[in-house]
Amino acid sequence: MPGHDLDLYFNTALSLAKEAGKIVKEGFLTSKNVVAKAVSWDFVTEYDQASEKFLISGLAKAFPAHKFIGEETVSGSNEEPVLTEEPTWVIDPIDGTTNFVHGFPLTCISIALAINKEVVLAIVYNPVYDHMFTARKGQGAYLNGERIYASKETDISRAVVALELSLARDPKLHDKIMNRAKSIISTATGIRVTGSCALSLCYVALGSFEAYQVDHLHSWDVAAGSLIISEAGGVVVDTSGDKFDMMAHRILAAGTPEIAQSIASLIKKADGEMNAIAS
To answer: What angle do the packed helices 174-185 and 257-278 form, to 10 degrees?
Structure first.
């Protein structure tokens, strides 16, 4: 990419991710100061804040002209983040904070760099298991340096699909989420809930899941994972099946277009049935 040293960007971010992983792993093994955000089930800990501060300060020092979208920074400002064409780091310092708080090891650091509103490099690091998922645009996806590939399954009846059912705790979302889940459960081989959006996306890239779908999320949840899936040969679309926009709060990722379309159709049907009942 003219004017940009992507190798330098990637290697700097990778080094910082490994160091931030030490912060996260230390916190995973000790007691934490847990504070609820806007709702009682959305947590933040001092380790989220320390990890984000470390990552942003390190990247800002190395690349002072770059911009940042970080979960804790945005949460503190109560402003909707805006993605521009400038080089922008999109960071989730601890994805799966509820897992982290409860000592469940599916938690990670997620880092992506977008240039001209397109993600060009991605890092998702689970320091508990020392699993480092990486991707650079046009260069494939990797787990700890080994190339990974998404599932090539095309039949939804043989697919394992990951969802995030905990969002159904919100009374405004409960019926929609559970109705969609019921439709998918009755069709797919199995359902999994990891509690980490970034890792669920990586598991689609790894071929462990055939698909993952969730709405009501944020850019820092999906920025890195979306590139990792694409580079692993998978597909990333909007929940409707249309073009994916990481700022639009919804994602449907799959190993193949056929699985993605099957799930999009199931969701459309489930939503239509619910709307018909409501009217």
So the answer is: 130
Q: What residues contact 194, with CB distance under 8 A and at least 6 apart?
A: 96, 99, 106, 162, 200, 203
Catalytic residue check, 130: no
CA 268, 272, 278, 279: dihedral to nearest 10 degrees?
Answer: 140
**pTM (two decimals):** 0.93
What does the alpha-carbon distance between residue 115 and residue 27 come to, in Å, rounded to a whole number? 32
Q: How confident is the model over 16-46, as pLDDT tens digits?
A: 999 999 999 999 988 766 665 544 445 677 8
- Angle of helix 6-28 versus helix 46-62 axis, rounded to 10: 160
Question: What does the pLDDT look like over 46-94, one tens digit per residue?
Answer: 888 899 999 999 999 999 999 999 977 775 556 778 899 999 999 999 9
The annotation status of 175 as a binding-site residue, yes or no, is no
Cβ pair 260, 211 in contact under 8 A: yes
**71 known member of a binding site:** yes
Q: Is 130 flagged in the annotation as binding?
A: no
Q: How far apart are CA 196 and CA 182, in angstroms?
A: 21
Q: Annotated catalytic, 95? A: yes
* 175 catalytic residue (yes or no): no
